[in-house]
Amino acid sequence: MLPPLTDFVALLGINLVLCALALRLMDAIAAMRAISPIRPWAGWMSALVFALLCWPVGTAQLPVAAYLRGVSADLSITLVMLACLDLVQRVAGLRAVDKREYSLVYAAIALAALFLYPLALGWGDWDAYRLGWSGPALWLALLVLSLSCWARGLKLLPVLVALALLAWTAGVLESCNLWDYLIDPWLALLALFQCVKMGAEKIASQFRRKSAKAAGPAPA
Fold it and tell me: What single DSSP character describes residue 11?
């Protein structure tokens, strides 16, 4: 007997995100130990992780991902799609999206998180989470943001927004709030971390350039 669509999509999303995370961790370990990258075996490794997460355990014979769902809750469509892109890159060795596209996506998600979660937790008299209940203001903001990005040749963010809207229209998650399709706490933490990382890398790069200028040309 097949599970309901919402359960199937939620468990599939958790599986894909954890597969991408497992490959990322393996790549990081390989880089730290200066050993060969895992790319030749990435497909088999991701398939093994996926199979383990689908393995039924316990008296209820639920898949491992179902127990993890009790901790993580349903993941946003945006996070699942980013995980799929990461899997394609690591398994096939292809970078389908430019780095600056990811930078824009993470910056937009971080700003959305800083706007949404403090207000949703009661840090004001207005709850931004209510915009996700078929609020036209959120639709308009997403439309303006997507069109602005598309006009500048940035396609990743508009595509992610479009996929989240399609999934929300189809009701593939248990939640009926559009915010839950666009963002989740795990994605918010990832975006904030990436923004801090990008900022630190930019500051370090500027510092190296200034140091190189101050040192002057190398002696002949």
Answer: H
**Res. 76: pLDDT tops 90:** yes
The model's pTM: 0.88
Q: What is the token pair recorded at 59?
A: 């008296």
Q: Tokens representing 190?
A: 């990832």
Give me the DSSP letters along 97-138. S-HHHHHHHHHHHHHHHHHHHHHHTTSSSS-GGGGGTT-HHH
Question: What is the Cα Rg of the chain in Å?
Answer: 20
Q: What is the pLDDT of residues 8-53, one digit of tens each?
A: 999 999 999 999 998 888 877 766 765 655 556 667 777 888 888 8
Instruction: Please give the Cα distance from 97 to 110 (Å, whole number).
Output: 19
CA distance 106 to 42: 25
Residue 47 is encoded by which pair of tokens?
Answer: 């398939």
Q: 22 is written with which tokens?
A: 């497992």
Which residues 6+ apart lie within 8 Å of 45 measured at CB?
A: 22, 23, 26, 38
**Per-residue pLDDT tens over the stretch 148-199:** 999 999 999 999 999 999 999 999 999 999 999 999 999 999 999 999 999 9
Output the six-digit token pair for 142.
Answer: 């997403």
Residue 205 token pair: 């790069």
Instruction: State the DSSP H helix or E strand holding residue 145, giving kind and residue range, or none if neither.
Output: helix 136-151
